[in-house]
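Re-run with default settings, no changes from the original entry. Doing this only to confirm the output is reproducible before filing.
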Amino acid sequence: QGSQMGIMLGLAGGIIVLGGGRGGTSSLGGQFDSGYAIGFDGGLRFARDFYVGAVLHYDKLSPGTNASVVTGGGGGFQGALMLAWLGKGNGFGLYLEGGVAYRTLGFETTLSSGSSTYTLANTLSGVDGIFGIGFHFRGGPIHIIPKISLSFGKFSGGTLGTPSGDVAFDGTNENFHFVALFGIQGAYEIPLGASPAASGASASGTVQ
């Protein structure tokens, strides 16, 4: 049956696509193309089939088809707290996850004013909700989870660059965005305690 609990540590990564967000006629999907995410995750598997943990991702995005003022794409971090159901913690099963994340997105824009051209740094931040679905495979201490994860949220803070200096960004005209991750997660498990079968065998062996 395997152990009921264990510490899982691993790596995660995949392809990300953005949509929605920003105000007016612009959108994150137009300003940024697909990119990649890579990061670390760790947590506790408990009650055999459940997992609670944290993940830290770095996201890198290439410029989109409508990126007339965005230069060099964008990048940022996502830190999340996750709760997941592994389907079958000691074998193969359906995988479901949910969580909450704090996301940042940094990028540069260009602005021409008269004979001058400015390169301005911008940083957006906000909270996302996360839902994901996939499959969980386990072989020995190794867990493999291919999944599709969707994040929904709104940038509500940060700074925007202007020729006269940075100004605060409060998200007043920001629309809700989504981030789709087509990824894979791998983890190594350190078991905590003996398996039920081993515990039962040990207990029966001590009975006189």
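The first strand starts at residue 5 and ends at 20. The beta strands are 5-20, 32-46, 50-63, 70-85, 93-113, 116-139, 142-160, 167-168, 177-192.
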